[in-house]
C-alpha cells in the first residue's frame, strides 16, 4: 500500500469516525464452522444429528444430502439415473440457491485450515505465489470438466473418492476417532486422507488460495449459483473512500471496488466471507451482505 | 500468532514425522481391530473371501463402485447403530479405495438392521428386505465345528437373525450337525457368536461360493455317509486336538 493512500485512509478515518458497531462477521463465520463440526462430532456419541461428511450426509434423522459435484460425478461414473441421489441433491441445490457460494467461506473446514496457514506464512510470499495469483479462475471450469470426463472413463467418482478435501477431512476425522475407540479402520485410509489434507496445506503455503480460487471444482460449481442466489453483496449509496482495503483483504481476488458504483456484486469467486464488509472504512454502511432485493 | 518460516518448517517436519511414526507403528503392530484373542488362523484357510463383503443392499460390484462417493454415511450410521461393522477399503486395493466393506466379522459382524441402505445418499446401497440381502455366504469349517465333531452346540443357528430356515440340521451319533444353506445372506453374526477361538465359520462372497459349491456339497455328503470308524479317526486324530488348541470363548456364546 502506498504511503499517500495510507495517509488518506488515516485522515478519512479521523474525519469521518462513523458510528455504528463493528460487524464481526469473521467471528460469526468461525462459530458456524465450529458448530457444524461439533454437530458432525455428535455421530461419534451415537446421536444422529448430522451423520457422514460434507460430501454426503444424513441431516436430522431423515434428510439425505449429497454434494452437487459428487452428484455429477456419481451420475457420469455410473451412467445411471438414481432417484435417491436426486432427492438427496435437491435440498443442497435449494441451499445454494439461497446462499450462493457461502459454503466455501462459512462451512468448508478447509477454509479455516487454509486461514491458519495464511497466518503462519505471515505476509511473506514466494515469488511463485505472486505468479499464481495471476492464474485465471476460469481454468477451474476446465479442470472440473476434465475431472468429470475422467470419472466417466474410469467409472469411479474420481475427485470425490481420491482428492476431495471434504472427503479426506471427514475420513481423517472418522478414522482418527475410530482408531482411538479401537474400531475397525484401515490405517492406510487415515494416512492417505491426512496426507491429502497436508499436501493441500503445503500447496496453500506456496500458492495462497490457489486451491480455493482456481483448482477446487466444488467451489466452481457453487460459484455458478452465485449468479442467481438470493444472498449477494450489496452496495449502498454513500461515499467510497477509495482505500481499496476490501480488495486488499479479499481472499479470492474479487475486484470489489470496481463494482461499487453498481448496486450489487455477483462474482462467481465471492465466498461471502465478509472480510470486505469488515474492512470497509464506512463500517459496513457501504457494503452489505443482503438477501433478495432487486438486482 | 506469528511464526517465522523456519518455525513453520519445524512444525511441518514434526507433524510429518508424527504421521510417519504413527503409520509405521501400525504397519509393525497391525491394526487395533485384531486384538489378541484372534491370534488363530481363520477357518477354511485355503478358501479366500473372493473380493469384498459389501454392506447389505449393495448393488453388483461394478455399479456399486461407480456410485459410491466415499462419503462415509454408512460407516457412521453403522457406528450409531452400535454395530461398527463397516470399514473403508485402504490402499491395498487402489481401485476400490474409499468404498465400504465389512472388515472382520469375527469382531464386528453386520446386524442386518438395514439402516445403511436407508440412508445411503447415492443409491449405491439399495433399500431391500433383510431376506433378499446378498452380502455373501457363510461356510462352516467341518473340521473345526463342535457340532461336526461330537458335540451339540448350535450357537450359529441361535445367533442367526433370519432364524433357523437358513440352517439344515443333520443328526447322527456324531452330534447335531448344522449346515448353512443358500438362503444365507452373509451377515456374519454366526461368525462372531461361534464359541470356538478364531471362529469356525467364514463368510465368502456369493460368486466365490458358486465356484466351490460342488466340492463343498461333496465333502459334506462324504462326512455324513462315512463309517463310524473312519470318522472316529478323523475326529480324535486330527480335529479335536486343533479344536482344543483353539479353546472356547464363552463370553461370545452367551452375550
- Principal-axes shape call of chain B: globular
Overall average residue pLDDT of chain A: 82
Per DSSP, the total helix count of chain A is: 15
Order of helices and strands of chain B: HHHEEHEHEEHEHHH
How widely separated are the two ends of chain A?
Answer: 33 Å
Low-confidence stretches of chain B at least 5 residues in length (pLDDT < 50)?
A: 31-37
Number of domains of chain A: 2
Helix content class of chain A: 55-70%
Number of helices of chain B: 9
Number of domains as seen in the coordinates of chain B: 2
Computed structural class of chain B: alpha+beta
Q: What is the residue-mean pLDDT of chain B, rounded to a whole number?
A: 83
Given as residue ranges, the uncertain stretches of chain A (5+ residues, pLDDT < 50) are 1-20
Give the biggest beta sheet of chain B: 2 strands, antiparallel
Total beta strands of chain B: 6
The radius of gyration computed from the alpha-carbon positions of chain A, rounded to a whole number of angstroms, is: 21 Å
Helicity of chain B, as a percent range? 25-40%
Q: What spatial order of strands do you see in the largest sheet of chain A?
A: 1-2-3
Q: Report how far apart the termini of chain B are.
A: 53 Å
Rounded to an integer in angstroms, the radius of gyration calculated over CA atoms of chain B is 22 Å
User: What strand order characterises the main sheet of chain B?
Assistant: 1-2
Amino acid at each position: 500500500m502506498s504511503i499517500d493512500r495510507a495517509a488518506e485512509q488515516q485522515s478519512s478515518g479521523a474525519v469521518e469516525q462513523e458510528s455504528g458497531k463493528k460487524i464481526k462477521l469473521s467471528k460469526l463465520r468461525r462459530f458456524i464452522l465450529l458448530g457444524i463440526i461439533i454437530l458432525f462430532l455428535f455421530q461419534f456419541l451415537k446421536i444422529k444429528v448430522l451423520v457422514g461428511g460434507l460430501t454426503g450426509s444424513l441431516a436430522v434423522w431423515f434428510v439425505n444430502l449429497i454434494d452437487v459435484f459428487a452428484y455429477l460425478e456419481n451420475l457420469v461414473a455410473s451412467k445411471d439415473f438414481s432417484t435417491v441421489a436426486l432427492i438427496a441433491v435437491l435440498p443442497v441445490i435449494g441451499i445454494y440457491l439461497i446462499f450462493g457460494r457461502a459454503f466455501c467461506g462459512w462451512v468448508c473446514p478447509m477454509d479455516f485450515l487454509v486461514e491458519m496457514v495464511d497466518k503462519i506464512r505471515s505476509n511473506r510470499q514466494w515469488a511463485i505465489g505472486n505468479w499464481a495469483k495471476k492464474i485465471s479462475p476460469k481454468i477451474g471450469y476446465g479442470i472440473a470438466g476434465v475431472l468429470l470426463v475422467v470419472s466417466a472413463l474410469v467409472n469411479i467418482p474420481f475427485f470425490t473418492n481420491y482428492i476431495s478435501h471434504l472427503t479426506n477431512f471427514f475420513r481423517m476425522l472418522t478414522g482418527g476417532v475410530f482408531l482411538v475407540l479401537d474400531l475397525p479402520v484401515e490405517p492406510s485410509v487415515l494416512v492417505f486422507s491426512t496426507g491429502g489434507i497436508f499436501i493441500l496445506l503445503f500447496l496453500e503455503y506456496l500458492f495462497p488460495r490457489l486451491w480455493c480460487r482456481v483448482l477446487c471444482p466444488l467451489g466452481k460449481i457453487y460459484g455458478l449459483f452465485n449468479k442467481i442466489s438470493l444472498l449477494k453483496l450489496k452496495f449502498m449509496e454513500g461515499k467510497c473512500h477509495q482505500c481499496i482495503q476490501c480488495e486488499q483483504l479479499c481472499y479470492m481476488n474479487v475486484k470489489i471496488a470496481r463494482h461499487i458504483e453498481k448496486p450489487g456484486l455477483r462474482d462467481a469467486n465471492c465466498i461471502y466471507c465478509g472480510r470486505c464488509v469488515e474492512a470497509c472504512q464506512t463500517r459496513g454502511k457501504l457494503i452489505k451482505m443482503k438477501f433478495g432485493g432487486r438486482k | 500468532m506469528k511464526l517465522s518460516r523456519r518455525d513453520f518448517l519445524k512444525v511441518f517436519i514434526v507433524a510429518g514425522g508424527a504421521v510417519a511414526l504413527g503409520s509405521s507403528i501400525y504397519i509393525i503392530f497391525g491394526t487395533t481391530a485384531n486384538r489378541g484373542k484372534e491370534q488363530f488362523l481363520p477357518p477354511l484357510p485355503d478358501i479366500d473371501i473372493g473380493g469384498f463383503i459389501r454392506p447389505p443392499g449393495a448393488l453388483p460390484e461394478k455399479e456399486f463402485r461407480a456410485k459410491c462417493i466415499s462419503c462415509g454415511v454408512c460407516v457412521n450410521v453403522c457406528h450409531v447403530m452400535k454395530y461398527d461393522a463397516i470399514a473403508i477399503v485402504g490402499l491395498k486395493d487402489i481401485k476400490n479405495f474409499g468404498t465400504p466393506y465389512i472388515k472382520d466379522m469375527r469382531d464386528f459382524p453386520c446386524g442386518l438392521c438395514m439402516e445403511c441402505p436407508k440412508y445411503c445418499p447415492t443409491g449405491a446401497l439399495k433399500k431391500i428386505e433383510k431376506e433378499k440381502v446378498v452380502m455373501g455366504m457363510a461356510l462352516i469349517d467341518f473340521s473345526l465345528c463342535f457340532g461336526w465333531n461330537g458335540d451339540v452346540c448350535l450357537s450359529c443357528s441361535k445367533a442367526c437373525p433370519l432364524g433357523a430356515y437358513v440352517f439344515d440340521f443333520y443328526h447322527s451319533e456324531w452330534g447335531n450337525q448344522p449346515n448353512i444353506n443358500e438362503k444365507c445372506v452373509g451377515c456374519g453374526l454366526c461368525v462372531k457368536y461361534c464359541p470356538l477361538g478364531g471362529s469356525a465359520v467364514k463368510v465368502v462372497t456369493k460368486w466365490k461360493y458358486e465356484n466351490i459349491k460342488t466340492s463343498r456339497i461333496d465333502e459334506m455328503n462324504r462326512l455324513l455317509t462315512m463309517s463310524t470308524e473312519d470318522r472316529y479317526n478323523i475326529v480324535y486324530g486330527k480335529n479335536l486336538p486343533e479344536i482344543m488348541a483353539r479353546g472356547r470363548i464363552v463370553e461370545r456364546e452367551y452375550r
